Amino acid sequence: MVANINKEEIQDVQIVEYESKYKQAFKSLNEEWISSYFEMEENDYKVLDHPKELILDKGGKIFVALYQGKPLGVCALVKMNDPNYDYELAKMAVSPKAQGKKLGWLLGKAIINSAKELGASKIYLESNTALTPAINLYYKLGFQEIKGRQTSYKRVDIQMELNL
């Protein structure tokens, strides 16, 4: 897949690991997209206000996509306490200013590679089919739709998994 990406399109993109200086970007980028399509929920506020405690300290990762040095994309790999899944791909957000610049693809690949490095065998995600570009991205990354899992979010109408 990466061969299909024009290198010039991604030369201004750098994927870095989360640092506390990116906390506001992590929160605001997610609030922006969620509020554009849905309503912020209690779980959103919890995770976005406490990414260190609820993601990083529990064995997860957060990646930040810098476009021309600015944090314009984010994505988390959340450790799950689940017999079927090791991690969840969550809180992926790309600023409208940077959409079409392959930030989502690069963040997704960073999450998948990180999960493999951490010894994961399966990644889970939740989304909404109204988010067509995101759903298409997940399929391109290799995720497949699954049915029947409980979710704590009202907006979720599709669940997917990736076998690593």
Automatic annotation (TrEMBL):
Q: Where is the N-acetyltransferase domain?
A: 24-164
- What keywords sit in the KW lines? Acyltransferase, Transferase
Pfam families associated with the record:
Acetyltransf_1
Q: Which CDD domains does this one have? A: NAT_SF
The terms under GO molecular function for this entry are: acyltransferase activity, transferring groups other than amino-acyl groups
User: This protein is called what?
Assistant: GNAT family N-acetyltransferase
